[in-house]
Amino acid sequence: MVNPSLERLVDTVHITISSGQCPHCYPGPVTTAEEAPRSRRRPRGDVRAGLVAAGVELARAGGPDAVVLREATRIVGVVPNAAYRHFADRDELLAEVCTAAMHELADRMAAGIARVRGKRGNPAAAQRRLGAIGAAYLEFARAEPGLFATAFAVPRQHEYAARDTTDRTPLGLLCAALDELVEAGVLDPQRREGIEYPIWSLVHGTAVLTGRGPLRDASDAELRRIEARTLTFIAAGLA
Question: Whole-model pTM above 0.70?
Fold first, then answer.
């Protein structure tokens, strides 16, 4: 099923054809971008946004390998060459889709944090927020395996480490939670530097092992136990 947001974007960038019918539903001759009346052409930004949204849905369904320029243009309803007005190649589109997938993951983590009650600096609340981050990360990996794989398909270290920007990133949220543990007196300040990486590795490794690795055939109950043990192990190691 296509995401409603994608449908809205696609609607804004469909090329009008002489029959007035959707080219995906009624194959036939279409009016190209060059032939379309100038008054009916769509803003370039709409086409670019539509291609990225299409790429996200392709990734959601099939992971990073499914993100193909020609298929994205087909979904949006523009000629294949139109993609090259916005992206140099497939890798450039994939990079944008990776960023979008990373932001979806970060949003899921932020939502988990928001559900935890308690003032900042409260030891128990700070520990629960860290646990909520890990649980949301694992939940996203289970629910959106295609997007999860895509989020890490292209190295984007500048986004992972963007702690001083307004954009929320998975690593930025983890770092903020660890900083709160220091403020709350749970984590020794001398242990804080760089500790986000082994913690991230533990949670990410669990997600990969249970999602695409040798533990992928474990029962749901066993998967939940593995995830719970991972988060408990992390919490115990920080105390």
Answer: yes
List own/partner pairs for 161-168 with CB under 8 A and 24 or more apart: 167/103, 168/103, 168/106, 168/107, 168/109, 168/110
**Distance (Å, rounded) from C-alpha 142 to C-alpha 162?**
25
- Domains of the chain plus CATH, in order, are 4-87 (no CATH), 98-238 (1.10.357)
- Look-up of token digits 């450039």: 92
Query: Would you list the DSSP string of 113-147?
Result: HHT--S-TT-HHHHHHHHHHHHHHHHHHHHH-HHH
CB atoms within 10 A of CB 113: 18
**CB 105 within 8 Å of CB 167:** no
Helix, strand or coil for residue 19?
A: coil
Q: Which residues of 171-180 are buried (b: 16+ CB within 10 A; e: fewer)?
A: bbbbbbbbbb
Amino acid at 137: Y
Burial 121-159 (b: 16+ CB within 10 A, else e): eeeebbbbbbbbbbbbbbebbeebbbbbbbbbbbebeeb
* Tens-place pLDDT, residues 133-169: 999 999 999 999 999 999 999 876 445 444 444 457 8
The separation between the first and the last C-alpha atoms of the chain, rounded to the nearest angstrom, is 44
- Sign for the CA dihedral angle at 203, 208, 214, 218 comes to positive
Closest CA to 234 of 116, 128, 150: 128
